[in-house]
Each structure stands twice: as C-alpha cells, then as structure tokens.
Amino acid sequence: MASLRLWRLLSLYISAIAAVLRRASAALSHLIRCSIIVTLIESCLSLYFIFLGLTPTTVELDDHTTVHFWTSAHRRFSRPNLVLVHGFGGNSLWQFPQLVGPLSRSFNLYVPDLVFFGKSHTFRSDRSERFQARCVVEGLRGLGVGRCRVFGISYGGYVAYRMAEMWPEVVERVVIASCGIGYTEEQKREHLGKLGRSVTEIFLPESPENLRRLLNLSIYKFDPLKWAPDFFLLHLIHAMYKDYRKEKLELLKHLLAQKADPDIPIPPQETMLIWGDKDNVFPPLLAFQLQRHFGPKTKLEIIKDTGHALNIDSPARLYELIKSFSLGCSNSKDDI
Questions:
Q1: For residue 18, what pLDDT is reported?
Q2: What is the pTM of this model?
Q3: Which of 51, 79, 112, 157 is the right S-S partner for 152, CB 3.0 to 4.6 Å?
C-alpha cells in the first residue's frame, strides 16, 4: 500500500501548510485572494496522478458537451477497465487520490469529471443523472472502451446505477457506495428534516460554517478542517464552488425534486453495495433495503466506524472491496 502511504504523507504536508497559514493569515491574505494555495494543492494532486501513470484527456462528445477524464496512460488489455465516478463534494482529483494508486496496479483506470465538475461542461439543459451517465458512457466509447466495471460514490452512485441500468452491454459489474437510490417518500422527508438546514446550503456551502457542517456530516473519524482558519475555508469555497455554481444548484434541485421510488429497476449485473455504519447522509438502513430489493445478485458490505465519505474514513478497506469484487469477473477482451 505504498501509494496510500504516499497519499497520507501528501495529506500531512497539506495540513502543515494550512497550520502555517493560520498563524500567518494577515501577511498572506493577498496570496489567498489570488488563489495560490488551492492552485498549489490541485497542482500537487495532478502531479500525483501523473506519477501514478494517469494522464488527463478531454473528449468532445458534440458541439455542446465536453467530458474530462484521467485515464491510464498505458492501457494493458490483460487488465479490466475500471471507472471511478465521484460524488457531489469534489471532482476526480479531489475525491480519489487515496484510491487511484493501489487500483492502478490492477486496472486500466478511467476517472471522469462529471458535467459541471472539474473540466467537464455542457451547454445542454438536461440536469438528470441519466444525462450524466450518458456523458460518461459516450466519453468512454470515445476513448475506445467497450466494457468496464464501475464504482460510484454518493451522487456518483446515482450515475453508476444509471450506467448499469441503461447500458448492461457496457457495464460488467457495478459497485454503489453511500447512495440515496431506493428511498421511499416518507424516508426522504424524514431524513431531509434531520439535516437541520437546506440541502443546498450544506452541499453547496457559501460559509465556513456550512462547509464544516458538510464535512462533519460526511467524515466520522476525524475533522480535516479542525485547524483551518475561516479565511482559508472561504477561499476554498470560492475555489471549489464558484465555477458552474448555478448549474450545480440545478443538479441538486433536480435530484431533490424527483419522486422517491423504492421500486427502481434492478440492474442485471452483479452488484456490490458498500456503506459506512456511521453514515449520516444516507443511513445504513437504506443499504439493507436496497439489497433486499436488488435481490441475490447483490452483495452488501458495511464498514465499521466509517461515515459517508468512505474514501476518506476507510480508503484501505474500500480499496480491498472494490478490487476483490471488480476482479471477480473474467477479463474483458472486447474493447473497441
């Protein structure tokens, strides 16, 4: 797990920078306004991905839509293809650094930015998860990928589910983590009421308080922003949420406006559900309910002492589960 150790070292380095900045906030306020710190972090993450053998690639789907991927620079046909779909709290760079290292040794990786995250965008008005799924699948086809396994977390789980449902000829196996599909209307209303404030205020924060609230809801084991000053959080919010904020708000509103449906179509593939037992965003009860609905082709894994952000709380265990399940299917030989 050398790459996980490298990621922990990088995290320690970033935390140290934040601690120094907290003591030197007045002197560095101009630099913060100039976006230097977040740009430095993103540059470090990009270099880390490149060090792991990934390369940035942009696919023009048509005149209206562009999808950005991080892909394995040297694809090996002896390895299966694995797609990692991020959630609403970040893009491909910010959400998967703990996983891409170990997974890149066993899979050809394809890590897209969903539309309106990172460098992906569209001029179309569709804000559905089906549209996001279509963009990922068409992007994969543009990269020459015919068959793949898919992992999606949180909002990315909605997209991964739609990919599996709509394109069974493309998706061989699917892993869905910490995702709200399969709610009843009563469960939806009850859970939204427990959040204590507007979903859009939490998931598109504009204040340090709401950003801390989001992370406290998502992460169980530690507080990554404990020592971060408010001015740094304001800058982080500006850097991460200013682009396509209106469109992201429309994505959230579309998701919330959908009628809850506990009888969603059952994906034909073998499926794994992964949940944290301390998930405060989508409670584990939903995982058991979803497993019963999907039936015997679905496995469920509950990770102890883990919140909604499985990739942060328990990256090593999450890696093991994704790898073992995704390698359980024979290697595909039908890439385009």
A1: 55
A2: 0.88
A3: 157
